[in-house]
Design goal:
CATH superfamily of the domain at 9-134 and 178-206: Decaprenyl diphosphate synthase-like
Number of strands: 6
Structural class: alpha/beta
Bound molecules: 3-methylbut-3-enyl trihydrogen diphosphate, magnesium ion
CATH architecture of the domain at 9-134 and 178-206: 3-Layer(aba) Sandwich
Strand content: 15-25%
CATH topology of the domain at 9-134 and 178-206: Undecaprenyl pyrophosphate synthetase
């Protein structure tokens, strides 16, 4: 038992994919799939907190998702707005710190105000909930590089950049790296999500469309994770 417990992931990241197909299969507009996906997001965030997962990250909108129709983007932002407003009245908000990963400057002032408020909520922080919004893994690494470059120019420090410095300069800062990366919707790709942070993540790909993803499947993914032998390039520990 202790063995299994010690293998619980500290950080689970989700690529919530398949909302559009879920809706299309039912003859509904894609936005109906996002609305249903929003409910799943709520349920899975709660399930992770119940299971005492320290850090959870959800991919809500990628830097590439601007290629989608304006109406679909607007519907996604409206949903996010609603979930943030609800968040403030929740018990969970007291011990969970919300962080937004990605560049939120293109969003409306109203949404940015809500984001700023959400990021300040929480008293006794034991859990972290990251929402990746207008996020790209490459953009994250580039902004970390630029941050370190400006510091070096300012201080005249010529030393080479280290991996640890890059890790800390990323949007995830001191959070642990991704242990378990779950992608629903059948595609087996990373789609520019947490590239650096997932270097040694165990990858769980599921054909389930995100609106149908459940706490039971989350448990199956966590069980599967506990059975992995994470060698990090070394030899089997057993
Ligand atoms: C949700 O799934 C991902 C978001 C960008 C919010 P999709 O909207 O990509 O659904 P599919 O892949 O078209 O089914
Ligand atoms: C990844 O899903 C982005 C999010 C879940 C927000 P996409 O549906 O945008 O990914 P691709 O286009 O299939 O790679
Ligand atoms: Mg998709």
């Amino acid at each position: 038992m202790a063995e299994i417990l010690s293998k619980k992931p500290r950080h689970i990241a989700f690529i919530m994919d398949g909302n559009g197909r879920w809706a299309q299969q039912r003859g509904l507009p894609r936005t109906a799939g996002h609305a249903e996906g929003g409910k799943t997001f709520r349920a899975i965030a709660d399930a992770c907190l119940d299971r005492d997962i320290e850090v959870i990250t959800f991919f809500a909108f990628s830097t590439e998702n601007w290629k989608r129709p304006k109406l679909e983007i607007a519907a996604l932002m409206k949903l996010l707005n609603r979930y943030l407003v609800d968040w403030f009245s929740e018990e969970r908000a007291k011990n969970t710190r919300v962080h937004f990963l990605g560049d939120t400057t293109p969003f409306s002032e109203e949404l940015r105000d809500l984001i700023a408020r959400a990021e300040q909520t929480g008293e006794n922080i034991s859990h972290h909930l990251n929402i990746a919004l207008n996020y790209g893994g490459r953009a994250d690494i580039a902004q970390a590089a630029n941050k370190l470059l400006s510091e070096r120019i300012l201080t005249g420090n010529p030393s080479p950049v280290t991996e640890d410095e890059i890790t800390l300069a990323l949007s995830t800062g001191e959070m642990p790296p991704v242990d378990l990366l779950i992608r629903t919707g059948g595609e087996m790709r990373i789609s520019n999500f947490l590239l650096w942070q997932s270097a040694y993540a165990e990858l769980y790909f599921s054909d389930t469309l995100w609106p149908d993803f459940s706490a039971e499947e989350l448990d199956r993914a966590i069980d599967w994770f506990s059975g992995r032998d994470r060698r990090y390039g070394g030899l089997n520990q057993k």
